[in-house]
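User: Structure please.
Assistant: Input sequence and predicted structure:
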Amino acid sequence: MMLMKKAALVLTLAIPILLAATLSSFSFARPAYAHTATKAGDINMEVGWGTEPPLLGQMNTITVEVTKISDGKPVANAFANAKVTVTKGGDSKDLEVLPGEAAGLYVAQIIPTQLGQMTVKITGTISGQQVNNQVNIEDVEDTKTLNFPASSGDPNQSIPQDFVNQIRTTLSDVSGQVDAAKTSAQNATDAAQKAAQDIGTIKSEADRAYLVGMAGIGVGVAGIAIAARALSRKA
């Protein structure tokens, strides 16, 4: 009877402890990401996006968690002699890989600029093991899949309609000012041409008056000369 009481007491004390441990394991469990595992010899690599889903034009990271298969321990300084390259179509880019917050975790910043799937290539030597692996990571999605609330106007319009209208109004005002300036410049050109023509006319009239005056003076001088000669003969 005493043994049964002791067993019941032990169970009473043990159950809350087991429940607390179970809840604790769920609370601190790592979030499940859509990462892809790839292996090379004794090296295991978990590759994926740091933030999921990856969104077009948004800062993100590509993460690589490197551990040894034999003992599950993280690999330190894994990318001292290895590199990570991301490819899409015919384009490729070598990423700058930096140590993450956890042991064996490595991150490389990237801003995806095209929708769809990318491929990550890991080449070189990690912990003495030759590595030449590649994996496809989760597709890059459009930001509108997470937009809220829905924007007004065209659902495919990424620029606010009010801003577009302001730009149109500004361009219209600038166009009007340019047209006005062209008209003013043309008027000034026409006035200058007319002034030049008027100056030419005045000069021509002045030259004509000068010639007439000179002709009159010549006639007067000739008359004086004739009169003087006639007086000299009478004397």
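The helical segments are 2-27, 161-234.
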